[in-house]
Amino acid sequence: MKKKLLMFLFAVMAVFLAACGGGANEAPADDAPAEEAPAGDEAPAETTGETKTIRAGIGLNDQHPQYKGLLRFKEIVEEKSNGQIVVETYHSGQLGDDRTMTEALQLGSQEVTIPSTAPIANFVPEYNVFDFPFLFPSEEVADKVLDGEVGQEFLDMLPNQNLVGLAYWENGFRDLTNSKRAVATAEDFNGLKIRTMENELHLEAFRALGANPTPMAFTELFAAMQQGTVDGQENPYATIYLQKFHEVQDHVSNTHHIYSPFVFLMSKTFFDGLSEEQQQIVKDAAIEAGQYQRELNREANSEYLQSLQDEGMTYTEISDEARQEMIEIVQPVLDKYAERVGQDIVDRVYQAIEDAQE
Prior knowledge:
The chain is of the alpha/beta class. It has helices at residues 2-20, 65-80, 98-107, 117-120, 139-146, 149-155, 200-208, 221-227, 237-242, 268-272, 276-310, 320-341, 343-356, and strands at 52-57, 85-90, 112-113, 163-178, 193-196, 212-215, 232-235, 251-267, 314-316. Strands 1, 2, 3, 4, 5, 6, 7, 8 and 9 form a nine-stranded mixed beta sheet that branches. Helix 2 links the parallel strand 1 (52-57) and strand 2 (85-90). Helix 2 (65-80) runs antiparallel to helix 11 (276-310) and helix 7 (200-208) packs across helix 12. It starts with a helix and ends with a helix.
């Protein structure tokens, strides 16, 4: 009788233990089991697919119209993708200079940068044509050419370099500043040490004018002017003012020697990893944000020229005759680079400019 009672008790104990859960050696299903949603609260909506992150870097600071355009791009992309694409923005060369960031796009270690056309010419020589001095007569003509068939033709050259060009933004007309003297004529360039971008066409054009051009990373420029390593530089008014170059420069001239577009670049490796819908979102956002950036940039350049004068810089207007003399001086350089770029491409650009003025 006692034996039967003991067996009964063991059986009851086994059933009780099974009901309480597994043994001490059984691994839990999750590190932290999910909690049930409180009554009346809806569970969060499920997201489909992996969240993509775009690291977008530029060399200019966070007050420049380029960065404000980048923030608009971020806003549009994150909204249109329902948060499936996140845009991280970096200014002031935090991710490197234009060339470094462009190379990072090629390697797939960064997703977006927006350089001028001059650094891109180191990768795609045909882009040198956009840095021909005195090429575009106005911003409006530049818009028509860049947003048209010719502009698209140049964007189509980029995938071979593992880059995708989504849109043209605007840096603007480049103008000369220096700490030595007012520049009103070609003769006034003589002997000036001018920082330029790393672009052979720019270097040769300034040498032809009699200057001593020095390529240098943009992030090093302020200190170089402050220390007298270079006498001056050339950039649009917005860049000159927002980078506080007026603190180390005395003279500014409206040379308008080059109209400089920005090209919105994306890593092809990253772009190819997006769905067709996501690709369209980033492309449309780059175009829309670019239109916004152009408007801001033109307003800023107009305002900042006055601000530079208010800060004590001497402004010198270049006469039509003086500018024509500069054009004639650099023409042999343009002829040389037309052969390198391809005369047919150069002719198409000039024809597009002529058509845009009609």
